[in-house]
C-alpha cells in the first residue's frame, strides 16, 4: 500500500499530464471530440491562463474560449482564458505579439500580422512552447496573476513586440455573445522597459458589463525604441476580417502615453530592439483587477527571476503538492500508463477553473473570498464540486462563501459567472444544489443561515428579465427565470417558457436542495420545498408511449393540458435555449430525478421495465436527435458528453444490479475518453467531463444533494486519497484486470463485509477509512442490502 505523504516527494505526477487532451476534434470516425480546453500555462484556480490566441480558418469554431485551436493562426499571446467551455468566447485579453517585420503590418488590423505555426506545439504542466512561421520561438509560463514570456528571434533580423490593449477573442456569431472593447490606456516608463495600462472589455458568453483589467509589463532588456499608438476602432468583428468600409484607418503613433478617449480608440505600444546582438527578448507581465500598482506587485512577487524554468518548476511543485498528490496510485512500470495519464490529466483540467480572485474584487470590499469564472455551476454541480469537497476542502469553503457573498451584494447567487458578472442560466439555480451537497456533508466554515437565505431568493424571487438575445422570455442572468410558472402552476409550461421540460426537472432538484438545508436551518419550510421537489411529476405523461416504453416527461400548456400531439420524447428540436429541453432530450431527462428514484422507477412501470428502458438507451442507433457539438456522432440515446446523463449509467444500483452499472459506465469511459487530442466526448465544460472520469476510476459516484456515494469498480489496485486536509481514504482492489476482471465480487468497508452498493459520507469520507474490493471476470449480483435511498420520495 502507498504511504500517504511519502509519494509526494518521490513521484512527479505532472509527468502524467497531457495538456492537449480535448484540444482537437473530431473524434476518429465520429463527428465529435475536442474539449475546447485551454492549452498553456496556469496554476490551480489561477487568475491568469497564459497562452496563444488563434483564429482557425474554414472551421465551425474560428475561436474558442481557451484561445488554442490545432491549426489556427496566432493572433496574440494573452493572459486570460477560460477552459473547456463551449459558449461564446470570453477574455483573450492583455496581449503581446512578437513580430519580425513591420512591412505590411497595420497595428489597427491584426489580420496583417497573424502568424501560422510550424512544427509541433509543446505543453506540459506550467509550460507551453510554439514556433511561429516568422522563425520566432515562444515559451510561456505563469504565476497566479502573472506570466513570463520568452521570445527567441532569428539572429540578425528585426525584433518587435506589439501590445494591443484592445485585443480580445471574438465571437463569429456576433450579437449578445460577442465581446466588446470599451476603452483602455497605456503608459510607457522612460526607456520603454516597463509599461502599465488597462483594458476594459464587456460582453462574451456571460453578456457581462465592462470589466477593467490592469497590466504591468516589463522587458528584461530595454528596447531601443518604444512608441504608443492609437486609432479608431470600427466594428469589432471587422478586426478579424478584411476592412470593407472604405480606407483602412491609420494609426497615430505617440510617445509615452495614450488613452482611448470618448471614441473608444484602440491603444497599444510597439517595442523594437535594433541591436543585432539581441536575439532573446524576455518579458514578465502582471495583471490585476484593482490597479496597475497591484499588477506590478504580482509580477515582481510571483515571477521572481528572468529564468522561465524557475517559474515552471514552481508551477510543477504547486500542482504536485496541492492537486496531484491528493490522489496517489502506483506508478511503477507494471502500471497502465494510459490510465495514469487519464487520471492526472483529468485532475489538471478540473482545477483550471473557477478562478480564485480573493483580494481582487473591484466591485466591493470586505474580508470574504472572491471567485469568478463559474462557467458554469450547471456543468460542475453534478460531480465536480463533490470532488472539491473531498480533496480541496479549504478552497471549496472559499468558493461557497464567495457564492453567498455575491448574493449578499448583487441579490442572487450565480449559476454562471465570468467577468465579475452573473450569467448565463441554462436551467435551474444550481448554486442551491452545491450548497445543499455541502450542507448534508457538514462542510465547516459556512454561515448556513445566510446560505439558506440566498437559496430562498432563488426559490421565491422572479429575477428581472434582461431580455437577452439568448432568450427574451425570461432572465438568463441569474435565478430561476420561470418561477412565474413554477410557483402557481407547479411546472414550467411549454407555451409561456422555453426549456420547459429540463427546467421543470432542474427546479425540482433545486427545491429538494432547499428542503435538505431547511431540515436544520428552517424546519418549518422542509415540507413545503419537499413537496415542490415532487413537481416534476406534474409534467409526467403516464400515457405517452415511445419505442414500446410508456410514461415520459412531456410538454404541458399553462392551461394544464399536455401538448403531446406528434410528441417524440427522443427529439428536442436542437436542445438549445428555445427548445423544450436543454442539452438533452426529454427521454434522457426522464432519468434525472436523483432525489426520488423510487417514484421514477414506479412511474416507468416498475424495476423490470425500468431496467429494460435503461438497457435500451445504451443500444447503438437509438439516438434520434442530432445534437451538433453536444454529441453529434454518438448513436446511443445515452450521451456521456452532456452533463444531464452523467448519473444515468449508475442507476442500475437502484435495482441492486450494480454489475450493470460497472459494465455500462466502463464501456462509456473506454469508448469516449482517451490519451489523445480528441480525448473527451465534447466540451470538457470547466473539467466536468474530466471529474466524471475521475470518479469512474475511483470506483465511486456521488449522488448530488445527498451524503451518498454509489459503489462501482476502481481502475487501480491501490488508491490513497487525501481527504478533508489530512485524512486518508484507502481504496484497494484484488483480482483487478482492467481488460477482463473488473466486476465486483465483494466489498469490505472499514474491514467489515458490505452488503449495500452505496456508502454514506460518514462511512469513509469524514475521518477517512478503507474500501476493499474483490474483483473478478464474471458479473455478480453481490449486493443484498437496501438500494440507495430516495429521500425526496413523495407522490403528488
TrEMBL record:
GO cellular component annotations of the record: cytosol; nucleus
Domain Glycosyl hydrolase family 92 N-terminal: 16-288
InterPro entries: 6-hairpin_glycosidase_sf, GH-type_carb-bd, GH92_a_mannosidase_put, GH92_N, Glyco_hydro_92, PNGase
A GO term, aspect molecular function: peptide-N4-(N-acetyl-beta-glucosaminyl)asparagine amidase activity
Positions of the Glycosyl hydrolase family domain: 294-777
Provenance organism: Friedmanniomyces endolithicus
GO biological process: carbohydrate metabolic process; glycoprotein catabolic process
Protein name: Glycosyl hydrolase family 92 domain-containing protein
Top-level taxonomy: Eukaryota, Fungi, Dikarya, Ascomycota, Pezizomycotina
Amino acid at each position: 500500500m502507498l504511504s500517504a505523504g511519502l509519494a509526494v516527494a518521490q513521484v512527479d505526477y505532472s509527468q502524467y499530464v497531457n495538456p492537449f487532451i480535448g484540444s482537437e476534434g473530431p473524434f476518429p470516425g465520429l463527428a465529435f471530440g475536442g474539449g475546447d480546453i485551454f492549452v498553456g500555462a496556469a496554476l490551480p484556480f489561477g487568475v491568469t491562463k497564459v497562452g496563444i490566441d488563434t483564429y482557425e480558418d474554414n472551421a465551425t469554431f474560428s475561436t474558442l474560449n481557451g484561445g488554442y485551436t490545432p491549426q489556427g493562426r496566432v493572433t496574440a499571446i494573452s493572459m486570460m482564458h477560460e477552459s473547456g467551455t463551449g459558449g461564446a468566447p470570453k477574455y483573450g485579453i492583455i496581449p503581446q505579439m512578437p513580430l519580425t517585420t513591420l512591412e505590411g503590418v497595420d497595428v489597427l488590423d491584426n489580420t496583417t500580422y497573424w502568424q501560422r505555426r510550424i512544427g509541433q506545439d509543446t505543453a506540459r504542466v506550467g509550460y507551453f512552447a510554439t514556433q511561429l512561421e516568422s522563425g520566432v520561438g515562444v515559451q510561456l509560463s505563469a504565476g497566479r496573476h502573472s506570466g513570463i514570456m520568452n521570445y527567441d528571434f532569428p539572429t540578425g533580423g528585426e525584433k518587435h513586440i506589439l501590445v494591443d490593449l484592445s485585443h480580445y477573442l471574438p465571437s463569429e456569431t456576433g450579437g449578445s455573445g460577442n465581446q466588446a472593447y470599451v476603452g483602455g490606456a497605456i503608459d510607457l516608463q522612460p526607456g520603454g522597459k516597463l509599461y502599465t495600462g488597462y483594458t476594459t472589455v464587456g460582453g462574451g458568453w456571460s453578456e457581462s458589463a465592462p470589466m477593467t483589467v490592469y497590466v504591468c509589463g516589463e522587458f528584461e532588456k530595454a528596447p531601443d525604441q518604444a512608441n504608443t499608438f492609437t486609432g479608431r476602432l470600427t466594428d469589432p468583428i471587422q478586426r478579424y476580417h478584411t476592412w470593407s468600409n472604405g480606407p483602412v484607418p491609420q494609426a497615430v503613433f505617440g510617445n509615452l502615453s495614450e488613452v482611448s478617449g470618448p471614441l473608444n480608440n484602440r491603444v497599444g505600444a510597439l517595442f523594437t530592439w535594433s541591436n543585432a546582438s539581441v536575439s532573446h527578448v524576455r518579458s514578465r507581465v502582471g495583471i490585476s483587477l484593482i490597479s496597475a500598482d497591484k499588477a506590478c506587485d504580482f509580477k515582481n512577487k510571483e515571477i521572481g527571476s528572468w529564468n522561465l524554468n524557475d517559474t515552471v518548476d514552481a508551477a510543477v511543485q504547486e500542482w504536485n503538492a496541492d492537486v496531484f498528490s491528493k490522489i496517489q496510485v502506483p506508478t511503477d512500470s507494471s502500471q497502465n500508463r494510459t490510465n495514469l495519464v487519464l487520471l492526472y490529466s483529468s485532475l489538471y483540467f478540473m482545477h483550471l477553473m473557477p478562478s480564485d480572485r480573493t483580494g481582487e474584487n473591484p466591485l466591493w470590499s470586505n474580508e470574504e473570498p472572491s471567485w469568478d469564472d463559474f462557467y458554469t455551476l450547471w456543468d460542475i454541480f453534478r460531480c465536480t464540486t463533490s470532488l472539491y469537497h473531498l480533496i480541496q476542502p479549504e478552497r471549496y469553503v472559499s468558493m461557497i462563501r464567495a457564492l453567498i457573498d455575491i448574493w449578499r451584494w448583487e441579490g442572487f447567487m450565480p449559476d454562471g459567472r465570468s467577468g465579475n458578472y452573473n450569467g448565463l442560466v441554462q436551467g435551474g439555480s444550481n448554486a442551491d444544489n452545491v450548497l445543499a451537497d455541502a450542507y448534508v456533508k457538514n462542510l465547516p466554515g459556512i454561515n448556513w443561515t445566510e446560505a439558506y437565505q440566498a437559496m430562498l431568493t432563488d426559490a421565491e424571487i422572479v429575477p428581472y428579465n434582461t431580455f437577452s438575445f439568448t432568450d427574451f422570455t425570461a432572465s438568463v442572468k441569474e435565478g430561476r427565470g420561470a418561477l412565474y410558472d413554477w410557483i402557481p402552476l407547479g411546472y414550467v409550461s411549454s407555451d409561456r417558457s422555453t426549456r420547459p421540460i429540463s427546467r421543470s426537472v432542474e427546479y425540482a432538484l433545486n427545491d429538494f436542495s432547499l428542503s435538505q438545508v431547511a431540515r436544520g436551518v428552517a424546519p418549518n419550510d422542509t415540507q413545503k420545498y419537499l413537496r415542490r421537489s415532487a413537481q416534476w411529476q406534474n409534467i409526467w405523461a403516464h400515457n405517452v408511449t415511445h419505442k414500446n416504453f410508456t410514461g415520459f416527461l412531456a410538454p404541458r400548456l399553462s392551461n394544464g393540458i399536455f401538448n403531446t400531439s406528434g410528441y417524440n420524447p427522443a427529439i428536442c428540436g436542437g436542445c438549445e435555449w428555445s427548445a423544450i429541453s436543454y442539452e438533452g432530450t426529454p427521454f434522457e431527462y426522464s432519468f434525472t430525478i436523483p432525489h426520488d428514484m423510487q417514484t421514477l422507477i414506479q412511474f416507468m412501470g416498475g424495476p423490470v421495465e425500468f431496467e429494460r428502458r435503461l438497457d435500451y438507451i445504451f443500444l447503438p442507433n437509438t439516438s434520434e436527435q442530432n445534437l451538433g457539438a453536444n454529441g453529434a456522432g454518438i448513436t446511443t440515446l445515452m450521451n456521456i458528453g452532456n452533463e444531464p446523463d452523467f448519473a444515468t449509467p449508475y442507476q442500475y444500483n437502484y435495482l441492486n444490479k450494480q454489475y450493470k452499472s460497472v459494465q455500462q459506465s466502463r464501456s462509456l469511459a473506454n469508448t469516449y475518453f482517451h490519451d489523445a487530442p480528441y480525448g473527451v466526448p465534447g466540451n470538457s465544460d470547466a473539467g466536468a467531463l474530466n471529474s466524471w472520469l475521475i470518479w469512474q476510476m475511483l470506483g465511486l459516484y456521488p449522488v448530488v444533494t445527498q451524503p451518498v456515494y454509489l459503489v462501482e469498480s476502481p481502475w487501480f489496485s491501490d488508491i490513497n486519497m487525501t481527504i478533508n486536509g489530512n485524512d486518508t481514504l484507502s481504496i484497494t482492489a484484488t483480482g483487478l484486470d482492467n481488460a477482463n476482471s473488473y466486476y465486483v465480487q465483494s466489498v469490505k468497508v472499514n474491514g467489515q463485509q458490505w452488503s449495500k452498493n452505496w456508502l454514506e459520507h460518514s462511512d469513509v469520507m469524514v475521518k477517512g477509512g478503507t474500501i476493499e474490493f474483490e474483483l473478478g471476470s464474471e458479473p455478480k449480483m453481490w449486493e443484498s442490502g437496501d438500494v440507495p435511498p430516495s429521500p425526496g420520495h413523495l407522490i403528488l
